Amino acid sequence: MSKTLVVGASGTVGSELVRLLGARGHDVVRTTHRTPTLAAQVQVDLATRQGLEAAFEGVDRAFLLSPPGFANQDELLVPLIDEARRRALKKVVLMSAMGANADPAAPLRKAELALENSGLAWNIIRPNWFMQNFHTFWLQGIREHGAIFLPVGRARGSFIDARDIAAVAAELLSRADLDGCDFDLTGPEALDHHEVAAILSRETGRVIGFEDITPEAMLEGLLGAQVPRAYAEFLVLILGFFKAGYAERTTDAVQAILGRAPGRFAQYAKDHRANWRV
After folding, report:
1. Are the CB atoms for 59 and 87 separated by under 8 Å?
2. How are strands ordered across the β-sheet holding 91-95?
3. How many structural domains compose the chain?
4. Does the pTM exceed 0.90?
5. Residues in the chain with pLDDT < 70?
6. CATH no. for residue 253?
7. Number of C-alpha atoms within 13 angstroms, CB side, residue 96?
């Protein structure tokens, strides 16, 4: 039985990955930044590296990601990769982000390169923007004002269901024939936010719209929500890439790895419609 470490185990992707790995027979070790309440949990502070060695004890595989809120992702991820190398893990899957490999100086690309050069068996997955953002990060505007507020204009995004990301990660952690490969993960279609709003309206019975705001207004809103400035500026930056069209591309990676098409936005909206109802 594989003993697999899942960093970010309580997050959107990590919680589903834990479930899928358990169903496959993996013994899963889950990191948490809080005091552990379960035997399978280990407390880790990625910013200070506290608990890092304990998390890898007896582990032979690992899924790594950088939690939201940090713009210096390499400073959090590279120590994890170094510990995986020290322990000679059999497999590491790193979740990065689509487009991260466009700039060698980008923090996420630095982490990717550290893994690629580690000598370990690895995969890198780069998902596009999550569908789940609409019932987490963008939820307040939809619930309180009936609108999605983002500085992205009519640009389209091939949003991906986080459940598909987790399914891909579980598959890659359980097989070796795709070792050494990286994959850009997208949904099957590219939608603009007016189309997204129309789907949410249909599923909820509410009138939900989209309002294109300025980057400055987005930054002000993030800072007002107590998002750290460095991370808020990072989010505004990558939303600018979205507006420039870099999130529109679709790939066949989910189909190639899982043998099925990725989920469509309409199905995601149906499954989560209770979140947007007042």
Report:
1. yes
2. 41-43, 27-32, 3-6, 61-64, 91-95, 122-127, 181-185
3. 1
4. yes
5. none
6. 3.40.50.720
7. 28
